[in-house]
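ARCHIVE RECORD
Type: protein–small molecule complex
Small molecule: D-xylitol-5-phosphate
Source of inputs: curated submission
Record status: active
Notes field left blank by submitter.
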Amino acid sequence: MGIRIAPSLLAADFARLGEEVARIPNADWLHVDVMDNHFVPNLTLGVPVVEALGKVAEVPMDLHLMIEDPDRWAPAYVEAGAGSVTFHVEAATAPVRLARELRALGARAGMALRPATPVEPYEELLPELDMLLVMTVEPGFGGQKFLDLCLPKVRRARQLLDKHGLELWLQVDGGVSLETVERCAEAGADTFVAGSAVFGADDPVAMIDSLREKAEASRAS
Ligand code: DX5
Ligand code: ZN
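STRUCTURE (tokenized, with ligand):
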């Protein structure tokens, strides 16, 4: 079972994005949080910045769209260079159509669940996706405390994936750190977003390695 570490750029210095991206050469993905001030009460960046990041990033970009109307806006992020695009199911009008469109454009399609959104209603939809994101904080801000109450959902999501023999990646995002990564991995996550833990570390490369080691050890046990 592969483990993937995706540092979230939200915790980086936005005045020096190019240099910040260069600090995480051993990451598997670069997690980029797009917020529109409507779906969440925060505003970050959009297509032009993603395009610019794509020119300097050494690893593929994992877009997390915390925006209203992803049906309309998500495809542009594939064209901007994203390798993976995740939309929130709470905001999507036609998640199946959108996932198919993202895949047809050549990206991995991801679907995210807020902490209060259950996974069970989407069981039949899972084969349309390449990744399921179980949020472990309320989306909108970095540096929040990990919500343990989301772990049973990670476990149930893993059971659904196993039941159907699906190869989707199971991502957790929010409050992931050396303190919480093992719990997430034990519950069945294999893809870990970490913002403040990585960009707040003195040595982001060593932090990525440590997170990966802990996750690998917990997945194996
Ligand atoms: C929160 C974002 C996360 C955030 C994680 O809405 O989706 O990606 O950057 O930050 P940390 O790891 O600091 O909780
Ligand atoms: Zn995110």
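CURATOR ANNOTATION: The mean pLDDT is 98.
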